[in-house]
Design a protein that fits this description.
This protein is of the alpha+beta class. It has two domains: 140 residues, no CATH class; 115 residues. Helices cover 51% and strands 15% of the residues. A five-stranded antiparallel beta sheet has the order 1-2-3-4-5. β3 and β4 form a beta hairpin. α2 runs antiparallel to α9. The longest helix has 31 residues. The two termini are 42 Å apart. The protein binds heme C. Heme C binds next to α5, α7 and α8.
């Protein structure tokens, strides 16, 4: 009898482990998922700690990598692609936050980031922060340290084009966060977000002249499109009353985002890499917008853990 009871406990334990180790808890609709134990060498762990500004003991060397098939953001097809995931723990100032991070196996892109357990205060689970990682593309900058980031920021000041690229991209990321907040309600309380979006377009127009990698014609088109986007945004502000009409006006603006991104985004991303201001620092100092709730320390800890997760997924064998 005792043996049977023991067997039941063991089996339940295994079933629970299987649920816990499911990529589906990080990416909805993930299929064919499995979990594999993998290892980092001491050198890899050290390099990851340096890149993240963590202590070596904060980087685990024995990890479980989740694997499965899921839809990847911005993909050209609706076919599922291979996706890898991991669960890491961020040391928040008040408690631990367990975060699931998933990346595309064949592309340097984050698929999703999700809070799985939060022992810090409630703000540690603010969705607006994590939404920023959906589809995030990274470059070699992700391997660099906080000191490298300081050096990059100082150096970019000597190069007009790099400074303009950085300002436009940081601005656009802030635009994305404000836009998400705006479309949620599309009512009077959303007006400040709309005003912020318009201001970010205005600021971008002023920097287009410094983008030497574009032709005169491309610069002209881009500044006209940005100015038009600012005007369209301001025209929508009086219509923000939470009705379907307001939402429809915003949905039309969504086309404007895509029409500009389709020809421009990848060229910007390539040029940023060439100018040494590539995407991938995963730092609140450049790419991440910190929510008003929660301390800077909290968001910093979360960002470091997410960066550690991405690098661990890539390096663990
Ligand atoms: C007139 C052109 C234009 C319009 C309109 C535009 N964008 Fe952008 N956006 C860009 C360019 C150029 C980039 C590339 C900047 C970069 O990543 O360096 C970009 C990048 C972004 C990024 C950052 C992506 C990343 O990986 O870092 C976000 C987020 C974004 N745009 C949101 C929006 C949203 C939301 C809208 C519409 C409400 C919009 N943009 C409309 C030109 C535009």
């Amino acid at each position: 009898m005792i043996k049977v009871a023991f067997a039941v406990v063991v089996l339940t334990g295994l079933a629970l482990a299987a649920v816990q180790d499911d990529l589906g808890k990080i990416v909805s609709g993930a299929e064919k998922t499995k979990a594999t134990k993998k290892k980092l060498t001491a050198d890899q762990a050290k390099a990851i700690a340096t890149a993240c500004g963590l202590k070596p003991e904060d980087v685990e060397t024995s990890v479980t990598i989740l694997e499965g098939w899921a839809q990847v953001p911005d993909a050209q097809t609706t076919d599922k692609a291979r996706v890898l995931g991991i669960v890491v723990t961020a040391k928040g100032p008040k408690g631990a936050i367990k975060i699931g991070v998933a990346v595309a196996a064949d592309e340097d892109r984050i698929v999703n980031v999700k809070v799985l357990e939060n022992k810090d205060d409630a703000s540690a689970a603010t969705a607006d922060f994590y939404d920023q990682f959906y589809g995030f593309l990274w470059s070699g900058a992700i391997r660099k340290s906080p000191d490298d980031l300081k050096a990059m920021l100082a150096k970019s000041k000597d190069n007009k084009e790099a400074a303009a690229l950085l300002e436009i991209s940081v601005g656009m990321r802030r635009l994305g966060v404000n836009w998400n907040a705006l479309v949620k309600k599309a009512d009077k309380t959303s007006v400040p977000y709309a005003e912020e979006v318009a201001k970010i377009y205005d600021a971008a127009v002023k920097r287009v002249g410094d983008l030497a990698f574009l032709t005169d014609r491309q610069r002209k088109t881009l500044s006209e499109d940005l100015a038009k986007a600012a005007k369209t945004m301001r025209d929508v502000i009086p219509k923000l009353d939470g009705t379907d009409t307001a939402k429809k006006a915003l949905a039309e603006m969504d086309n404007l985002c895509n029409r500009c991104h389709a020809p421009m985004r990848s060229r910007f991303i390539d040029q940023r890499e060439k100018d040494g201001v590539g995407n991938g620092w995963l730092s609140p100092e450049v790419e991440l917008v910190i929510p008003l709730e929660g301390s800077k320390e909290l968001w910093d800890a979360v960002a470091k853990a997410i960066k550690k997760a991405v690098l661990t997924i890539r390096d663990a064998k």
